[in-house]
Design goal:
By secondary structure, the chain is mostly helical. It is 60% helix and 5% strand. The protein is built from 16 helices and four strands. Strand 1 and strand 2 form a beta hairpin.
Length: 396
């Protein structure tokens, strides 16, 4: 079933115009939308292109707006999945992150991304503050963990050093011995090797103890299983770094390596934890939604990374691949992907009507966590703007 999702998504990249489906399946969960949805005066403008990004809660109006405004990417925002954030919790999380023992282990750009994540971790949902801290530490850690994986293939160290690094992370979670990465100090840049060691130490000394303290035994084991699958897919995907691949091949790993299933799991309530599986096709599909949005707003950054040759994963940006395969410009490809996202959100709403009420509630919560990540990529801490991808909020 997961393969079918990949194939349908790849097909949609070539065929964005699809049959309409009914909307508002989740009407029982009606919530307030973010203020920038359905707001004709607020959009997000890219600093180096003439593209604008907007959100509308009507699929039909989103499609009409795309036709009327050739410089706009208009994405359908499911009207029954409201998200909001707690400014007090956000401020507290950012201050606590600055005081975290391991915070100085992060390079400045990644440390700043971690601080920006304070907003996302303040998403209004029913979890304790301590669990928000765990989530915040995990998300900050994953930036560094992932960056290390992106750099190893550039130095031709994927098959040896990266393999040992990822195996060590799995062993740490399972209480097994780890190999000494310093045996590769003659092959690997010193700074990169130290970052990999820092990642291991944070997992062993902070993340795993916190999980065992705050989560049930079942929940912890699901975290181990989910991260182990993530590490395996990271290694598999690393074979594609710095190479031209098809969208079908990229999608086989991307729904896992975007890393959002672990985020969903850390947010979940106990009743929903029992429904969780790291290979759930619906969760993979929602993760692909996030990957497509990530690639759309991060396209310009990845194109620059290709020129600098400083990020092997930039080759796997699905919007860039569509430009290569179809001869589209950056603007054309971005607009097609906005349509694809809108179509997938609407289709997902429709098909969720076939699930039991508890599963509808479960996937509704996961969609909320997913749309919160959309917000994070644009808004940044205290709505100051997330500068990573070059988008800023503008008001006309």
């Amino acid at each position: 079933m997961a393969v079918e999702i990949y194939q349908k998504t790849a097909y949609a990249m070539q065929n964005p115009s699809q049959k309409k489906a009914p909307t508002q399946i989740f009407s029982a969960f009606q919530q307030d939308l973010p203020y920038y949805v359905d707001n004709e005066y607020i959009s997000f403008k890219h600093e180096k292109t003439d593209l604008n990004l907007r959100f509308l809660s009507s699929h039909e109006k989103a499609q009409q707006a795309m036709i009327a405004s050739p410089n706009d990417c208009v994405v359908y925002f499911p009207p029954d999945v409201g998200i909001s954030f707690d400014r007090e919790i956000e401020n507290r999380l950012s201050n606590d992150l600055l005081a975290w023992n391991f915070f100085k282990s992060f390079p400045q750009p990644l440390a700043h991304l971690g601080i920006d994540m304070s907003r996302y971790c303040s998403l209004q949902t029913h979890i304790s503050y301590d669990r928000r801290v765990l989530l915040h530490h995990h998300l900050t850690w994953i930036f560094l963990m992932d960056e290390v994986c992106e750099k190893f293939p550039i130095h031709q160290l994927h098959a040896n050093v990266e393999k040992m690094y990822l195996d060590n992370l799995k062993n740490i979670m399972n209480g097994l011995p780890v190999a000494d990465l310093m045996q590769y100090e003659s092959l690997c840049p010193k700074e990169l090797l130290q970052e990999a060691i820092n990642v291991q130490e944070i997992l062993a000394q902070d993340l795993m103890p916190l999980k065992r303290k705050l989560l049930s035994t079942r929940h912890v084991q699901l975290c181990v299983d989910t991260l182990s699958l993530f590490f395996d897919k990271q290694y598999e995907e690393g074979h594609m770094f710095c190479a031209e691949e098809t969208s079908e091949n990229i999608l086989r790993t991307r729904g896992f390596t975007i890393g959002t299933t672990m985020v969903f799991l850390l947010f979940l309530q106990p009743a929903h934890v029992e429904l969780f599986s790291p290979e759930d096709p619906c969760l993979i599909q929602i993760s692909i939604f996030i990957a497509l949005f990530h690639d759309m707003i991060g396209l310009h950054k990845d194109l620059e990374s290709l020129q600098k040759h400083d990020d092997g994963s930039a080759y796997l940006n699905l919007v860039r691949v569509s430009m290569r395969d179809n001869g589209w410009s950056e603007k054309e490809a971005s607009r097609v992907f906005a349509q694809i996202l809108s179509h997938h959100f609407q289709s997902f709403e429709f098909f969720m009507a076939t699930y039991t009420p508890i599963r509808q509630e479960y996937y509704h919560e996961v969609l909320k966590f997913a749309l919160g990540l959309f917000d994070y990529h644009l808004m940044g801490i205290m709505e100051s703007g997330n500068q990573r991808y070059g988008w800023r909020k503008v008001q006309s």
